[in-house]
Amino acid sequence: MTPARQLTTDQAAVARFVHHGLLMPFSDPVSAAGALCGAQAQILPAAGLALWNRVPAMTVTDLDRLLYQDRSLTRLWGQRHTLHLYPATDWPIIYAAQSQRATYWEQEALRDGWDPAAYEAFLTKVAQHLFERETMGRSDLKTLLPSIDERHLSGWGGVFAILARRGLVCHAAPRGGEARMAHRLRWLPDLPWDPPSADEANLTMLRRYLATCGPATIADMSYWRGCAQAEVKRWLTLLGDEIAPVSVDGQPAWWLQSALERVNELPSRAELPARLLGRFDPLLLSTRAKSWLIDADVYHQVWRPAGHIEATILIHGRIAGTWRYDWQGAALVVTMRPFTPLEPALRDQLERLALGVANHFNAPLGDCRWEE
User: Of 89, 93, 96, nearest to 74 (Cα)?
Assistant: First the structure.
């Protein structure tokens, strides 16, 4: 058996940075979302910043157009049971990859004693209501079905997450601060619906994950996907010669063979440019272990209680602080909080990036403040 290729932590970190489109941008936001296998979108502006970091000229106007006019991006529940932005053409893959799993709300209903046939009839009725309307919010559903269990109206998903898991529903444009949903056959009537098998879909997702986030351990892949390690091991077996075992500073991991063959083409860590990553950026969610990305003594300044992940300052591919934006009238104010004082040249780079953030939001930069 050929021994595993030995890689350093720096090589792994640079590979993730580069393949995430943080050195050379993707051609467009839809391509970026596809390569990333989704950008987490529980907070939609955070997903917009994730795509802006990989397609620098992209604005919130572009995001709105791609989601609600062109409909070439779609917002669905995906890996880790959280909302992501995907290319609309990937919807059959995302559906198929999760088709054999019940949602939390389905499991709860059956535990509560729902008759399965009656429960399916309820879901069919909700889907029919959605199909009969252009879009629907939770308040509309409450009006149509006054006796509906409030858990099915959960802002985390409820009945809409169940129907999304079944390939029927996605997010439409919000209205009056309320999320709204649309039936696939109304929202994307011309979308070819030819889902692959569950295994094929999961292999497609794992290939894309390894292409952008590799090299990765079994624990990393399980964490990113939100599934058991046994499932990951089976999918790796099915990938066969497409993947190769590697060792990252002695830690067993896996990578695509095609990526491994190009590892010597990667730049050095010192060549990586500064970035202002938004909250829940895909790079920060790519691996379970974070030591390649952040020092242990400042970890809890980024990964906060209740699963919150702060926006981060990235310097040479490593987290060097946090940042935030706030609105001051029509202008954007950006506040930088580096963990240690930065050289003037780095501050200048980050202030130029802050201006880019303001441009993304179609706003003037009111101020860039430093808290050191």
Answer: 89
User: Other C-beta atoms within 10 Å of 120: how many?
Assistant: 11
Q: How far is 49 from 3, CA to CA, in rounded Å?
A: 40
Reduce the DSSP state of residue 63 to 3 states and report it. helix
Q: What is the pLDDT of residues 146-205, one digit of tens each?
A: 888 787 887 777 889 889 999 999 999 999 989 999 999 999 999 999 999 999 999 999
Backbone angles phi, psi at 152, to 5 degrees: -75, -5
Which helix (H) or strand (E) segment holds residue 128: the answer is: helix 116-132
Beta carbons within 10 angstroms of residue 210's beta carbon: 25
Domains and CATH numbers, the chain: 100-187 (1.10.10), 274-282+291-370 (no CATH)
DSSP of 169-199: EEEEEEETTEEEEEEHHHHSTTS------HH
Measured CA to CA, the distance from residue 258 to residue 28 in angstroms comes to: 23
How far is the CA of 355 from the CAs of 26, 91, 222, 335, 352, in angstroms?
20, 34, 37, 12, 5
Tell me the per-residue pLDDT of 262-276, one tens digit each, with 9 for 90 and over: 999 999 999 999 999
C-alpha to C-alpha distance for 223 and 221, rounded to whole angstroms: 5
The per-residue DSSP string of 141-170 comes to HHHH-TT--GGGG-TT-HHHHHHHHTTSEE
Which phi and psi (to 5°) does residue 346 adopt? -70, -40
Q: How far is CA 7 from the centre of its chain?
A: 27
Q: Between β-strands 251-256 and 39-40, what pairing exists: parallel, antiparallel or unpaired?
A: unpaired
Q: How many residues in the chain?
A: 372
Q: CB neighbours of 77 closer than 8 A, spacing ≥ 6?
A: 83, 84, 98, 103, 157, 161, 164, 165
